[in-house]
C-alpha cells in the first residue's frame, strides 16, 4: 500500500495553520505558487498586493494588531529584495513576522538560475533567524523554527528561503516532521530582588514619571500598566503603539509636558523603549533622577546611558509585581504626589492653550495643526489610527490621541515611509469591526499608493487622509536651514497631484479639500461611503512641525 505524499508548499501551509496564521500577504512568482495551493487546502486566505514591500509591511501590521505572527510570501530575487524594507522595519519595531522567499532549484545551485541571489546572507543582519530549507521533509520543521525564533527576547522577523525543487517535490507524509506543539511561554517576571528595589524607589519618589513604550502593547500589558499608574499615582507618557494605553482625560494621561517632566522628575521609569534617537540617546533625562529601565531584551537595558536599575522581562508581569510590592507598604509614595501631578497638569494645559488657536485656524492654505485637530475630534473609540509620513505625522504626534489601547500604528524607529496602505490593509483585514483611518504625507503615499486598488479589490474600506504640501517638507526645512532658501527645493518637491481623483479612478471614494471648514464634512462622507477613501487636504507648504524645525531626529 502506497503511503500518502505531500508537497513542500502544502507542508508550508500546514505549518502556517499550526501557528494560527489566517492570511498571507504576497505577490506571485513561479517559485512560490505551490504555497498558494497549500493555503487553499488549509483555508488560509491569500491577499495579493502590487508591491512586495507592501506584503512585508502588511505582515508586520497584522502581527501588531492581532498579537499573532504575520506572514508574507514573495518570489526569489527582486521579489525578496523588494521586501527587505518591510522586514527591516519590523526588525527595528520588534514585530514578529515570517518572510518566506523563493529560490532557484537546489539542482541549479550556483549555475545562475532565474532570480538567484544570496537571500539568506542579505537577510541575516535584519532578522532574528534566516535560513535555507535543505529538503522537503524539513519544510514544516524549519517554518516552526523560524516562528519560534521570532519570540526569542524582544520579538522580531525571521526569513526562510525555499528552493523551487524543495517546494514542489512530494515526500511521504510520514517522513515529514510537522510540529504542532512547540511554543513555550516567553513571559519572564523579572528578578524578584529588582522588583523590591523598584518598589522601594517608588515609595521614596516625590516626582516620578513613567514612559510606556511599544512593548506594553506587544505584551498586551495594558491592564497592568493602568493599574500601576493609577494605583501609585505615577504620571504616564506613551509612545509608539503604547499610545492609547490610557484614554484621553485620564488623570494619569500626559502628553505635552514630557520634556518638563523628564527634566524635573526624581524617578523616571522607561518601559519597552530603547535610549535611541527618540530619547536623545538618554541625554534628555534629568542627570539627577533615578532611572529605571524595563525591557524584554537584555541588550537594550543600559545601552547609551547609565541606569540605576534594569529589569529584564515582560513589562506587564514586572509592572504588576512592582505595583503589588509597593502597595503592600504602609507608605508607597502616592499620597505626596498631588502637587507634582498638578504641576505637570498646569504645564500640559499651558502647552495646549498656546497651540489651540492654530488647531482652530481658518487659514488657507490649511494649517496642518487644523487638519490633525479635525482628525483627533473625528476619532471614535473604535478607530485605529495610522500615521505614514514625515512632517504631517510629526504634527499628528502632538495632537492625535487614540481613544483605546492598540489603536495607534506608526512605522517605528526605522522611520519608514510607505507603511500606511499596508498597515490599513492588515488592520482592516484582522479587525473588520474597527474603523481604520490613515494620515499620509503626499510623499509617503506616493511610495505604495497603488495598493489602494488592493483595498478596493478585497473590499477593505478605510478612511485615508493626505496632508498634501507637494513636498518632502521635513527634508526641505533642513535643506533651507543648512544651505539657504535658494537651495531649499533641490530633490524634495513633488507635483500638485489630486489624489482624490486617483481614489475615484481606482474605484474608491475621493475628495479634494482646500477650506478647513470642509475637512470634517469630508471625513464624515468618507466614513459613510463604505469604500476605501482618500481625502486630499491641501496644507500650507511653508508651515513646519516643531519637531521638524528642531530637527530632533538627527540630534
From TrEMBL:
Keywords recorded for this protein, A-Z: Metal-binding, Thiamine pyrophosphate
InterPro entries (alphabetical): DHS-like_NAD/FAD-binding_dom, THDP-binding, Thiamin_PyroP_enz_cen_dom, Thiamin_PyroP_enz_TPP-bd_dom, TPP-bd_CS, TPP_enz, TPP_enzyme_TPP-bd
Obligatory cofactor(s): thiamine diphosphate; Mg(2+)
Domain of life from the UniProt record: Bacteria
Domain Thiamine pyrophosphate enzyme TPP-binding: 388-537
Domain Thiamine pyrophosphate enzyme N-terminal TPP-binding: residue ranges: 7-116
Coiled coil: none
Annotated Thiamine pyrophosphate enzyme central domain residues: 195-321
Gene3D superfamilies: 3.40.50.970, TPP-binding domain
Bilayer-crossing regions: none
A Pfam family this chain is assigned to: TPP_enzyme_C
Family: Belongs to the TPP enzyme family.
Name of the molecule in the record: Thiamine pyrophosphate-binding protein
Organism: Nonomuraea ferruginea
Lineage: Bacteria, Bacillati, Actinomycetota, Actinomycetes, Streptosporangiales
Amino acid at each position: 500500500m502506497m503511503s500518502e505524499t505531500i508537497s513542500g508548499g502544502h507542508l508550508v501551509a500546514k505549518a502556517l495553520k499550526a501557528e494560527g496564521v489566517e492570511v498571507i500577504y504576497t505577490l506571485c512568482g513561479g517559485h512560490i505558487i505551490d504555497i498558494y495551493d497549500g493555503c487553499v487546502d488549509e483555508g488560509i486566505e491569500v491577499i495579493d498586493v502590487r508591491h512586495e514591500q507592501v506584503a512585508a509591511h502588511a505582515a508586520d501590521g497584522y502581527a501588531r494588531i492581532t498579537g499573532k505572527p504575520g506572514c508574507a510570501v514573495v518570489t526569489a530575487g527582486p521579489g525578496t529584495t523588494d521586501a527587505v524594507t518591510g522586514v527591516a522595519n519590523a526588525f527595528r519595531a520588534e514585530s514578529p513576522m515570517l518572510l518566506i522567499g523563493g529560490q532557484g532549484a537546489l539542482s541549479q545551485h550556483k549555475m545562475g538560475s532565474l532570480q538567484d541571489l544570496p537571500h539568506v546572507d542579505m537577510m541575516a543582519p535584519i532578522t532574528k533567524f534566516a535560513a535555507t530549507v535543505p529538503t522537503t521533509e524539513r519544510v514544516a520543521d524549519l517554518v516552526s523554527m523560524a516562528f519560534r525564533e521570532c519570540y526569542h527576547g524582544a520579538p522580531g522577523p525571521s526569513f526562510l528561503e525555499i528552493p523551487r525543487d524543495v517546494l514542489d517535490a512530494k515526500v511521504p507524509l510520514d517522513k515529514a516532521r510537522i510540529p504542532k506543539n512547540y511554543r513555550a511561554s516567553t513571559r519572564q517576571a523579572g528578578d524578584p530582588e529588582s522588583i523590591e528595589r523598584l518598589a522601594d524607589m517608588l515609595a521614596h519618589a516625590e516626582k516620578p514619571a513613567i514612559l510606556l513604550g511599544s512593548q506594553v502593547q506587544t505584551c498586551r500589558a495594558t491592564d497592568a500598566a493602568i493599574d500601576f499608574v493609577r494605583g501609585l499615582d505615577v504620571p504616564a507618557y506613551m509612545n509608539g503603539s503604547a499610545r492609547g494605553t490610557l484614554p484621553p482625560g485620564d488623570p494619569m494621561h500626559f502628553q505635552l509636558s514630557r520634556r518638563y517632566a523628564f527634566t524635573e522628575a526624581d524617578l523616571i521609569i522607561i518601559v519597552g523603549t530603547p535610549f535611541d534617537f527618540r530619547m536623545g540617546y538618554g541625554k534628555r533625562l534629568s542627570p539627577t533622577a533615578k532611572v529605571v529601565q524595563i525591557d524584554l531584551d537584555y541588550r537594550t537595558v543600559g545601552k547609551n546611558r547609565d541606569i540605576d536599575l534594569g529589569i529584564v522581562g515582560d513589562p506587564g508581569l514586572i509592572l504588576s509585581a512592582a505595583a503589588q510590592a509597593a502597595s503592600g507598604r504602609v507608605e508607597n509614595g502616592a499620597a505626596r504626589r498631588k502637587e507634582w501631578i498638578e504641576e505637570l497638569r498646569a504645564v500640559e494645559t499651558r502647552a495646549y492653550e498656546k497651540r489651540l488657536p492654530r488647531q482652530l485656524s481658518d487659514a488657507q492654505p490649511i494649517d496642518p495643526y487644523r487638519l490633525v485637530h479635525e482628525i483627533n475630534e473625528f476619532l471614535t473609540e473604535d478607530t485605529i489610527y495610522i500615521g505614514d509620513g514625515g512632517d504631517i505625522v510629526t504634527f499628528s504626534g502632538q495632537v492625535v490621541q487614540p481613544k483605546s489601547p492598540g489603536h495607534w500604528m506608526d512605522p517605528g524607529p526605522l522611520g519608514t515611509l510607505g507603511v500606511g496602505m499596508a498597515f490599513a490593509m492588515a488592520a482592516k483585514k484582522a479587525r473588520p469591526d474597527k474603523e481604520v483611518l490613515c494620515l499620509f504625507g503626499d510623499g509617503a503615499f506616493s511610495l505604495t499608493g497603488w495598493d489602494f486598488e488592493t483595498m478596493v479589490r478585497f473590499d477593505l474600506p478605510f478612511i485615508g487622509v493626505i496632508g498634501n504640501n507637494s513636498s518632502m517638507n521635513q527634508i526641505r526645512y533642513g535643506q533651507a536651514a543648512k544651505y539657504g532658501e535658494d537651495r531649499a527645493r533641490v530633490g524634495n518637491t513633488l507635483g500638485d497631484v489630486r489624489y482624490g481623483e486617483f481614489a475615484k479612478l481606482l474605484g474608491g471614494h475621493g475628495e479634494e479639500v482646500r477650506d478647513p471648514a470642509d475637512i470634517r464634512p469630508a471625513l464624515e462622507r468618507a466614513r459613510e461611503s463604505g469604500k476605501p477613501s482618500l481625502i486630499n487636504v491641501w496644507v500650507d507648504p511653508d508651515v513646519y512641525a516643531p519637531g521638524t524645525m528642531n530637527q530632533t531626529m538627527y540630534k
